[in-house]
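sry for the spam today, last one i promise. struct tokens for design, 365 residues
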């Protein structure tokens, strides 16, 4: 037979979002959406008669999850009697003591939570051995995998780990060449929030619901089959929303309304009403143009779920006037020096305007 599985991780149920750029009230909404998306994943397992669900750590935020949410999860797991659910705890939900979330509730027999030493859990009916361990600390500089070996290569063998395959961080750096050499059919990883569906025998599913503006692109779950014909995995989009970055370069010819409608038009041309936008304005604006980013934000939020706008433009200064007002001081010298370097080079011009912005602000203060 072949085993159909779903691999997810880094759900971060209970995420507080207390310092999110999009604010606390939207954070609360996102917190609820993360939970809904996780329950949609559980429903997907049942609807598609998935045999195995793997959750590779950071299922929840130990410091912020409520007992109420944990009970909802436990109860939902208990209804999924035909799905074997495997969980290895990560650095956000480590099994530290009896108050750790995983120790508070007794789960149904279909839920397998790895202990804090590496162990093998066997599902006889699927001829499957799954290896893994749960974190019991918030940091883990290394782990000795030298004794780890596939015990029965006639079975399907999967390894679940929460760690860092890409950099040498304090979050368990993983030597994938070493681990891959042990002969697992699949290594299910967690910790990195960016999904990678390109790997052949090991992969990060990433966060199913992206958490902030650093988590751009499509997010979802990994659907896979392991069987006599080998392994097949693919990333299936599952997130309710995406984070999108947009940058607009304006110039000194543009009025405020032109700037506002240009941005609005551009967003409308490729409208993604459910998504969250971070908009950056760069370039040089006319000194008389008052760039009211709140008005731009409000006008965009008629179109999309959320927009935040950052003004990184510089005023189009009247250099001759500023020089004559600052004859003999550092501001005049600065302008002279930059003019000598050549303002037709836009980098020089930006540097001049950036410097002037700071110097003139200081002067006012
Ligand atoms: Mn995580």
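last one done:
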């Amino acid at each position: 037979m072949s085993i159909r599985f779903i691999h997810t991780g880094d759900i971060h149920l209970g995420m507080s979002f207390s310092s999110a750029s999009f604010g606390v009230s939207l954070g609360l909404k996102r917190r609820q959406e993360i939970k809904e998306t996780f329950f949609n994943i559980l429903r997907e397992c049942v609807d598609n008669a998935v045999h195995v669900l793997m959750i590779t750590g950071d299922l929840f935020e130990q410091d912020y999850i409520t007992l109420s949410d944990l009970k909802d999860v436990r109860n939902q797991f208990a209804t999924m009697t035909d799905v074997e659910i495997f969980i290895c705890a990560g650095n956000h939900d480590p099994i530290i003591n009896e108050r750790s979330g995983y120790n508070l509730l007794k789960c149904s027999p279909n839920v397998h939570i790895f202990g804090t030493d590496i162990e093998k859990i066997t599902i006889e009916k699927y001829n499957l051995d799954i290896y893994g361990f749960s974190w019991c600390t918030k940091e883990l500089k290394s782990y000795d995998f030298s004794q780890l070996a596939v015990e029965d290569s006639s079975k399907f063998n999967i390894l679940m780990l929460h760690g860092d395959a890409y950099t040498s961080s304090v979050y368990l750096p993983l030597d994938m060449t070493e681990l891959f050499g042990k002969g697992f059919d699949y290594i299910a990883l967690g910790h990195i929030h960016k999904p990678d569906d390109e790997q052949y025998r090991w992969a990060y599913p990433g966060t199913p619901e992206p958490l902030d503006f650093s988590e751009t692109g499509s997010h979802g779950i990994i659907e896979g089959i392991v069987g006599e014909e080998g392994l097949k995995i693919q990333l299936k989009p599952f997130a309710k929303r995406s984070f999108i970055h947009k940058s607009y370069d304006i110039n000194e010819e543009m009025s405020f309304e032109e700037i506002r409608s240009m941005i609005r038009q551009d967003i409308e041309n490729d409208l993604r009403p459910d998504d969250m936008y971070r908009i950056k304005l760069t370039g040089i604006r006319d000194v008389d143009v008052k760039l009211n980013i709140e008005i731009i934000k409000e006008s965009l939020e008629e179109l999309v779920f959320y927009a935040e706008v950052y003004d990184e433009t510089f005023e189009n200064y009247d250099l001759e006037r500023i020089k004559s007002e600052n004859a003999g001081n550092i501001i005049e010298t600065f302008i002279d020096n930059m003019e000598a370097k050549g303002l037709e080079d836009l980098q020089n011009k930006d540097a001049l305007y950036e410097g002037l912005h700071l110097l003139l602000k200081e002067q006012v203060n």
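The pocket of manganese (II) ion is lined by residues 10, 58, 92, 191, 193 (CB under 6 Å). ok im logging off now
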